[in-house]
Amino acid sequence: MYSLAVISLKYVRYFITAANGRGHGVHSPFVFDFIKNVLNDKRQFYAFDTIENARNNLLASKAVILVNDMGAGSAVMPTSKRRVSAIAKSSLKPARFGQLMFRMVNYYHFNTMVELGTSLGITTSYMALANTSGRVITMEGSSEIAALAQLNFWQLKAHNIKLVEGNFDDTLPNVIASLKKVDLAFIDGNHRREPTLQYFTTLLSKTHQNSILIFDDIHWSSSMENAWKIIKNHPSVTLTIDLFFVGLVFFRKEQKQKQHFSIRF
After folding, report:
1. Confidence band, pLDDT 50/70/90 cuts, at residue 81
2. What gap in Å lies between CA 165 and CA 177, rounded to an integer?
3. CATH 3.40.50.300 fits 4-55+93-262, yes or no
4. What's the pTM value of the predicted model, to 2 decimals?
5. Long-range contacts for 70-75 (Cβ within 8 Å, ≥24 apart)?
6. What's the CA gap between 55 and 98, in Å, rounded?
7. C-alpha distances in Å from residue 190, one per residue of 42, 149, 215
8. Rounded to whole angstroms, what are the CA distances from 8 to 2, 103, 229?
9. What local confidence, expressed as pLDDT, does residue 1 receive?
10. 76: pLDDT confidence band, cut at 50, 70 and 90?
């Protein structure tokens, strides 16, 4: 993992060089539409307050659980015994990213969604409640974290979520084999080059031209930046959008030439 100073410097460079987030100078009709109607949609949807209340409860929790970390580990919390509030503070994506995923599901009418790395289930809930007729299959390696996430799903009435426990290396192939397609996938698990590329390859077998893959922490380390570069250059990928903390991957057929965008968000 890069130091905070290095990540901060990278963010400043991203902010200076990225498109301004209003679509000016973007010559892809699809990307312009995405910026206007998804990225910059300021509506407060019905589920947002409810999910954020659940986040606040987690941030206030005094409970302590044992965590089995199967990924790259936690630089913030290296011990296996952790406070739920500390996990919520360090591991949950900020509201704006969960709400972005909600808007993506809502706007593109995604039905089949996959998540690698449930954590406490906040982002999962945003995806699920954006389309209660669809389904989200989410995978989590730590059983005690999974139990808390499941409780959140029940309290939020997010009944269209299936939670699969276990190491992604074991669970992902079986999950993908059971699906006809993957409309949206959020990869927020093992933040290392080889596992990330393996997840990408596995997911590719069920993507289609309207699918979107979202990779978390693409600038978290040199290893993740290298994985992001390889994914961008893959022959199946026609378009990517770098939002710094997450990277979006598209397979749209109308893109005759690869296009890669960095957009402020």
Report:
1. confident
2. 16
3. no
4. 0.92
5. 70/141, 70/142, 70/167, 70/168, 70/189, 70/190, 71/117, 71/141, 71/189, 71/190, 71/191, 71/192, 71/195, 72/1, 72/190, 72/191, 72/192, 72/221, 75/1
6. 11
7. 32, 18, 11
8. 10, 28, 20
9. 87
10. very low
Q: What are phi and psi of 220, to 5 degrees?
A: -70, -30
Alpha carbon dihedral 134, 121, 206, 241, in 10-degree steps, equals 100
Q: Cα(185)–Cα(207) distance, rounded to whole angstroms?
A: 9
pLDDT digits (tens, 9 = 90+) for 183-222: 999 999 888 999 999 999 999 999 999 999 999 999 999 9
Distances (CA, A) of 51 to 66, 102, 126, 134: 24, 11, 7, 18
Q: Higher-confidence residue: 248 or 23?
A: 248
Instruction: Give the DSSP H/E element, type plus range, for residue 9.
Output: helix 4-17
Locate 192 and state its tokens: 């290392």
d(CA 156, CA 54): 8
The two counts, helices (H) then strands (E), for the chain are: 10, 10
Dihedral in degrees, nearest 10, Cα atoms 185, 189, 192, 197 = -30
Cα dihedral: 92, 98, 99, 105 (round 10): -170
Would you tell me how many other CB atoms lie within 10 Å of the CB of residue 247? 25
**Domain ranges within the chain, ordered by starting residue:** 4-55+93-262
